[in-house]
Amino acid sequence: MERNIFEERRSVKFFDKSRKIDEEVFRKIIDTAVLAPSAFNLQPWRIIAVESEEAKQRLYNAAMKQDKVLEAPIVLIVAADYEGWSESNPMWGHIAKTTTEKRLAGSMRATKRLYGADEKRQIKYAESNTGLLAMSIMLAAKYYGVDSHPMSGMDAEQVKNEFALKPSESPCMLICLGYFDQSAELSPRAKRRGFDEIVKRV
What we know:
Strand content: 5-15%
Helix content: 40-55%
Mean pLDDT: 96
Low-confidence stretches: none
Number of domains: 1
CATH architecture: 3-Layer(aba) Sandwich
Number of helices: 9
CATH class: Alpha Beta
Number of strands: 4
């Protein structure tokens, strides 16, 4: 029977510090996760993989001193680029190879109107698209047998400064990657609101 990664994926709070993530597995996780959709396929995101003890300590201090930052072999800073819609995005060069100049110009005008008109729209655009990548990373990780834990508990400005994010970038999510510490106990999955509670048909 096929594995149901949606049911198997859990937000693991305790990681086995003795187990590292194989380089090939890590690459497969990311290369699978980037299949996540994004508006106009502009992919307004970047990932910083925090692995060294020195870098983890800096992130630990900026992330409410949560122990899992130090325990997980890799912690990802998933950064959203608020200017990912703009002409400076290198993805436009790839898009240009698959469309006409007229359509390309139209797409650029549309993204500026839809996503670049003001700061509120820029934030909405970048955070919503990068959120898709973050979830995709966690599902891809589980597919390859790696556990994860998403974290929004951080001082975003401190993370941005410590890890030299671009002025247009903001840390959308931190994701701890590793293997569950089997000596710890994972609490039962908390109740999820189902179809009848969250769906309104009109």
